[in-house]
Each structure stands twice: as structure tokens, then as C-alpha cells.
Amino acid sequence: MNKRNEMMDRPVIDKEVRDYLRTSQKQLSGALGEIEAWANERRVPIIPHETVTFFRWLLPILEPKEILEVGTAIGFSAGLMVQSLSSDCHVTTIERNPDMIEKAKINFKKMNIENNVTLLEGQASEWLEKLEDGSVDFIFMDSAKAKYYDFFPHCYRILKQGGVLAIDDVLQGGTILDEDSEVPKRRLKIHRKLNAFLDIVLDHPAFDSSIVPLGDGLLLITKREKVDFSYMLPTDCGQ
Ligand SMILES: C[S@@+](CC[C@H](N)C(=O)[O-])C[C@H]1O[C@@H](n2cnc3c(N)ncnc32)[C@H](O)[C@@H]1O
């Protein structure tokens, strides 16, 4: 299993406030609660509890029927989204890591949501280009952060007008503000690509957006107008 992103240990808000958000808000029960506890004990990367409570509040307001997730891991957030909505919702979720895929399948069975979930196995870049324009009401992008730039054009195209795209971990423990010269070499690619992505989307006239300081920063975008962002797509089919 992958280890939780090192940035999860560098909260973007005061640590005591973060702990309060995690422990004082409504906890999960049943299989979903067990999966959350299992993942947190092993530091398997799943959304933190403050984002869990936010999704449980947000999704019933938005009432999406078709959801796309990029980055399934062990199926926790997919299960959370299904269980926050009515039984006719459907989540398509993409994962490339075979260990995660195996665990996610077990967990979908455990949560009894197999009929609500389609798990697409493999590289997100390959699946995203196959998905239909305007076919999804809500997208949760929670995969490799350096790829957000490349995946965004497809996600925006796939999203219905009025739909919401939620993108996790955009603040990188606050280091997103650092100068390139201050960033360790191993994180420089993520740092540059995330900054290039945020430079394009944060002030774009075609949609409304807001970064909420939950976890490592959750960016929310509502699609207002159709825009072709295909100029952002990699030219080398890189994944
Ligand atoms: C942070 S975890 C997802 C956590 C999950 N959304 C949750 O909260 O329960 C990110 C996952 O994205 C997957 N991933 C990263 N890049 C990917 C790509 N290019 N294609 C498919 N999956 C990818 C990783 O293997 C990892 O399991």
C-alpha cells in the first residue's frame, strides 16, 4: 500500500483545530467506519475526517446522480459518496494500483454497494479520454497531484454544466506558496505543475471556484460555461 502523503502531517490549519474537526464531528458507523479506522491506523491515503463530514453535508445538497472519481485507493471515498446519496446514484472510480484495486473490490462488497460502483482499472489518462462530454454531475479528483493539470481538461469536458469538480490536496501543506528554489528536488515537479494548474483555474471567468482549507486544501469548481481546455493536454500521451 502507498503511504499517506507526507503533507498530511503538515496541516494547513492549526493542528489543534484540525484535531478538533476530526474528533468532534459526527463519526462514521458500520462498514464505512471500519474501513476509515483501518486506513487511518495503517496510514493508507484516504480523505481525512473533516473532508468526510464536509462531503456528507455537501453531497445531499447537490444531489448528483452520476459521479466520477479519479483515485479510488481502497474505495473509502467512493463508499462515502454512495452512502451520502440516494440509492440510485452511481460512482465511476478509476484506480491504477493493483493492491488498491483488490482492496477496493473487497470493500465495495463489504459496504454492499457493488451495484452503485463501476471500478475502472488502469491509468486515469486512458480512461478519462474515453468518457463522454457532459455526462457527470460531480467529479472528485484525488490522484497524483502532478497530474491534475493534465487531467483537468478532460474532467471539465466530462462535467455537466452546473456540475461540481472537487480537487483534493491543492495546498501541499502550505508549501504551494514556496519559491521553486526552496522546494526539494523530489517535489519540484508536483510543485510546478500544481502552481501552473492553480494559475489557470483560480481566476478563470468560466467558472466559480473556492479553496476550502479542509485536509490539505480542497478546491471546488462549479462549471458555468463550456471551455475547451485541450491546450493543457500533454502532447506525449504521458500518464
Ligand atoms: C489519495 S489516494 C485516493 C483516496 C481515495 N479517494 C479515498 O479518499 O478513499 C490516490 C489514489 O490515486 C491513485 N492514482 C494516482 N495516480 C493515478 C493515475 N494516474 N491513474 C489511476 N490512479 C491513480 C493511487 O494509486 C492512489 O490509490
* Shape descriptor: globular
Query: For the CA atoms, what is the radius of gyration?
Result: 17 Å
Number of E-type strands: 7
Order of SSEs, N→C? HHHEHEHEHEHEHEE
Domains counted in the coordinates: how many? 1
Helix/sheet category:
alpha/beta
How much of the sequence lies in strands comes to: 15-25%
Would you tell me the overall average pLDDT? Answer: 93
* Biggest sheet overview: 7 strands, mixed
Bound molecules: S-adenosylmethionine
Spans of at least 5 consecutive residues whose pLDDT stays below 50 are none
Number of helices: 8
At CATH level 3, the topology is Rossmann fold
CATH architecture: 3-Layer(aba) Sandwich
CATH superfamily: Vaccinia Virus protein VP39
Describe the protein's topology.
Blueprint: H1 15-24, H2 30-42, H3 49-62, E1 66-70, H4 76-83, E2 90-95, H5 98-110, E3 117-121, H6 124-128, E4 136-141, H7 148-158, E5 159-167, H8 185-201, E6 207-212, E7 218-223
Parallel strand pairs: 1-2, 1-4, 2-3, 4-5
Antiparallel strand pairs: 5-7, 6-7
Bound molecules: S-adenosylmethionine.
Which features does this protein show?
239 residues, alpha/beta, Rossmann fold, 7-stranded mixed sheet, 8 helices, 38% helix, globular, binds S-adenosylmethionine
Concise account of the structure shown:
This protein is an alpha/beta fold. Helix content is 38%, strand content 18%. The mean pLDDT is 93.
Describe the structure.
This protein is α/β, with parallel strands linked by helices. The protein has one domain (6-230): Rossmann fold. 38% of the residues lie in helices and 18% in strands. It has 8 helices and 7 strands. The chain has helices spanning 15-24, 30-42, 49-62, 76-83, 98-110, 124-128, 148-158, 185-201, and strands at residues 66-70, 90-95, 117-121, 136-141, 159-167, 207-212, 218-223. It has a 7-stranded mixed beta sheet with strand order 3-2-1-4-5-7-6, with helices on both faces. Strand 6 and strand 7 (218-223) form a beta hairpin. The longest helix is centred in the last third of the chain and has 17 residues, at 185-201. The protein is globular, with a radius of gyration of 17 Å. It binds S-adenosylmethionine. S-adenosylmethionine is lined by residues 2, 45-47, 71, 73, 76-77, 94-97, 100, 123-124, 142-144, 147, 239. The site of S-adenosylmethionine has 20 residues, from helix 4 and strand 2.
